[in-house]
Amino acid sequence: MTATARRAETESIAVSPSRNGTVVHLAKRATTRFDLKRGGLGLARNTLPPLLVTLVLLGIWQLTCSQPGATLPPPSQVWTDSYDLIVDPFFNFGSQDIGLAWRVLTSLERVAMGFGLAAIVGVFLGAVVGQSIWAMRGLDPIFQILRTVPPLAWLPLSLAAFQDSNPSAIFVIFITSIWPVIINTAVGVRNIPEDYRNIARVLRLNPLEFFVRIMVPAAAPYIFTGLRIGVGLSWLAIVAAEMLTGGVGIGFFIWDAWNSSRLSDIIVALAYIGVTGFVLDKLVAAARQASSPAALRPELRGRRIMSSLSQDSTTSTNSFEQAAVSRAEVLQGYQRSPSSKGEFVSSHRAFRLRQVHPAQPHRRAHHG
C-alpha cells in the first residue's frame, strides 16, 4: 500500500457519513510512535537532571575527601568498606547481623502503627475542631503548644509510662505526626463552602452522612497535605527514637556504627533513610490520586459532591410527592364517605407513618 492510499484510508476513517446524511468527524487515532516518544522525553526530563546533579556532587565529594587530612571517607572508600551492605541488603546471619533492608522494614512496621493511629485520631479531632467553634477555641491553643515540643522530649515520659522501648517508640511517632493532620483537617473543614452546608441542612443529613459525603471530599486536599507532612515527621521521629531505645531498627544501626567508628556504614544507612522517606512521600501522594481523583481540582470536587447530593434530593422529593398524594387520597375519601371520624383518624395516622418512614411500604390501618 502506497503512502497516498494509506492517507486516503485514514481520511475515510476520520470523516464518515452517518445514516441521516450528516458528516460525523471522528478523532484521528494516535500512533504508538508518538506516545513512546512523548513518554521517553518525559522520563528523560524527570531523570536526567537529578542524575547529573548527583554525579556532580559525588565528584566534588570524591575530590574533597581524597585530600590528606580528610575526616570523612570518599565515595570510593564507602563502596569498598560497605560493599556487603550495598549489594546484599537482605542477608540474615543472626539477630543483630542482618541487612539494612530488614532494619528498614522493622522501623517501617513501627511507623505504620504510630502513623496509622495518628491519621485516624487526627482526622477525627480535626473535623471536630473545624466544625465546632467552641472546640476550636478550647483545643486549638493546646494543640499549638503541644506541637512545638520536640519528638525526643516525649521519649523519657513514654518510657516511664509504657516500661518498654517498642510502644514508647510508637507513641513518639504518634505524638509527632498527629499535629499536622489535625491542623490541616481543621482548616479544610472550616473552608467547606456554605452552599454544601445548606444543602446538607435541606436534605437533613445526619452527622455521619455529612462527614462521609460532604466533609471528607471537600477537605480531602487539606487532609492529604497533613498526611504527607505527618509521614515525613514520623520517619524522622523513629530514627531518632531508635538511637536511644535500641533494637534492630535503622536508627540503632547508625548509633551502633558510630560507636564502632564505621563511618562508611553510617553513610550507606543515611542513603537508605533518604530513599525510604522519598518513597513514603510518593506513596501518600499516590494514595491521594487513587482514592480521590476529584480532590485535585476544586471544580471536579464540587461537581462530585453535588452529584452525590442530587441523588438524595431526588429521593427525598419523590418520597414527599408520594406522601402528598397519599394525604390527598385520604382527604378525598373522607369527603366522599365520612362514615366515621375514627376511620379518618386511623387513615391520617397511617399517612403520618408513611411520612416519617417513606422508604417502608404502605401499611393498612387496622381498626380497633
Number of helices: 15
Q: Which percent range fits the helix content?
A: over 70%
* Strand fraction: under 5%
Q: Give the biggest beta sheet.
A: 2 strands, antiparallel
- Gyration radius, to the nearest Å? 32 Å
Q: Structural class of the helix and strand makeup?
A: mainly alpha
What is the element string, with H for helices and E for strands? HEEHHHHHHHHHHHHHH
- How are the strands of the largest sheet arranged? 1-2
**3D shape:** globular
Average pLDDT works out at 76
Give the termini distance in whole angstroms.
90 Å
Let me know the number of strands.
Answer: 2
The oligomeric state of the chains shown is single chain
Uncertain ranges: 6-16, 316-331, 333-368
Q: Could you explain the architecture of this structure?
A:
- This protein has 15 helices and 2 strands.
- It has 368 residues and is mainly α.
- The chain has a two-stranded antiparallel ribbon.
- The longest helix is centred in the C-terminal third of the chain and has 39 residues.
- The radius of gyration is 32 Å and the shape is globular.
What secondary-structure arrangement, pairings included, does this model have?
Elements: H1 3-14, E1 15-17, E2 23-25, H2 32-65, H3 75-81, H4 83-87, H5 100-131, H6 133-146, H7 155-162, H8 165-190, H9 194-203, H10 207-218, H11 220-245, H12 250-259, H13 263-291, H14 298-336, H15 341-356
Antiparallel strand pairs: 1-2
Task: Give the gist of this structure.
The protein has 15 helices and two strands. With 368 residues, the protein is an all-alpha fold.
